[in-house]
Sequence to fold (553 residues):
Amino acid sequence: MTQNGSYPLWWKDAVIYQVYPRSFADSDGDGIGDLPGIIEHMPYLEKLGIDALWISPCFQSPQGDAGYDISDYRKIDPLFGTVEDYEALIKEAHDHGLRVIADMVPNHTSDQHAWFKEAMASDPGSAARERYLFRDGKGKGGNEPPNNWQSVFGGIAWTREPERKDGKPRQWYLHLFDSCQPDLNWDNPEVRTEFESVLRFWLDRGVDGFRIDVAHGLIKEKGLPPYTERATMVGEDDDKTPSDAPMWDRDGVHDIYRSWHKLLASYPGDRMLVAEAWVKPLSRLARYVRPDEMQQTFNFDYLLCRWNAAKYREIITDSLEAMHEVGAITAWVMSNHDSVRHASRLGLKDAGARPQGIDAAHEQPNEALGLRRARAVIFMTLGLPGSVTLYQGEELGLPDHTTLDKKYRQDPAFFRTNGEEIGRDGCRIPMPWTADGPSLGFNENGELWLPQPQQYKEYAVSTEENDPHSTLALYRTLLNQRKNSRLGRGTLEWAEPRDNVVEFTNGDVRVVLNCGDEPVSLPPGEILAASLEIEQDGVLPANAAVWISEGKG
Ligand code: GLC
Fold:
């Protein structure tokens, strides 16, 4: 064991906590969270019992997509602080036994990046344009986009340059996301060299790893062949795999990750890479975590799974098997800054579905039921071998803001779909730290980049801290037990399948999750933790879960 209590290759069983800096804690009262805010709450994070922080992008950015549009990869945006603040954050985290994972966005830059500005000021065919994906338009005068690709955020994936001094037809540039996020040309060696240098910049400052944004998108099929589907990131429909799309999961991406693997391995400590890759099937996803590539890839099948015991069993079995095949661990995740929070998703009629945001005009989740299920599902998640990523606020049981007024919306997806898609703002609401104060302790003056819903007051850290039955207390208990029993390094053994029940043993813990609406019987054994009070011995109520001590029954 190392000094901070973790084992070699810490990422194999790490519980990673995603900090979304905009909404974590605001130290300077501008309504947007910042790095000093995170530093201030380091004791809270340590006490929770996690192993690492993943910090969503806080690099210099015009904030066209909440920081996923970076204009300088070596600077911190003044909204969040300075490079010195980031260094201080790394030190503070390390002092509290926590690792730090930065968020790297290599698929695209901001349109305010020096490279893109240079490209726009340069001629077609110039070296500056070769760093991006500029093409001539089709049709008369090149007035039509080069192909029919659609953006993930809606609308056509091409934007035409506004003017040309020489009067020649204006070119178009590709953006799989917003028009302020031009895609880079990863076939250009200069792009590769630059990103290796950026990775070094942050590795030299002590980051323990990187989450790689849109890891499956960097290489596009040669010739950019037509594709009629919208380039959605989500493979919700089993038959429609994004792997068929010419912009996703091309074999060429793996060379990039092999070179990054080597780069990280040249640094001391077990540095790691985790992929955000919306790729199906699992055998394709597993390619991202072959021994000489990344260390983890988020398991979105798990996030997308409906509230259904048989489905959970299937996904868990298939995922462990597919990752094991390449010698990798599975990285479980239920929520993030791109998805309606699972406490809300599990309260929908179609429990576990992932709508593209919820507003007052939509079905409102059943909050109590969603919370009850969220408290249950974490027993399964933290009981599984592998690594787990938590999203800030889920430890409080936070729901989404599901009635946020349109006037507050900021997600580019909302605007690019003319409001048809509500977007992701509802899961990005500032954290409630205290039950009183104008912004519930997010800052002192009540400025908020997105308003908090009424009921966030009830989920405040200050309240949950003092309640032994709170979701926060539950997370702390489970995280602590998970660590003591080394469940992340354990082996899963299924119990005899029963309707509506997910039941397995991992080391000295038996996990029983009842996804049904009827109570089920419990196996004998001492109850280590329960998602709600067990009133009748040997009976697990509907939508509830327990950990039972194996061998003591
Ligand atoms: C990833 C990020 C998301 C962002 C997109 C474009 O999916 O998680 O927030 O909008 O990439 O960078």
Summary: The first strand starts at residue 15 and ends at 19. The chain has a mean pLDDT of 95. Residues 65, 68, 105, 177, 213-214, 233, 276, 337-338 surround alpha-D-glucopyranose (CB under 6 Å). The two ends are 31 Å apart (CA to CA).
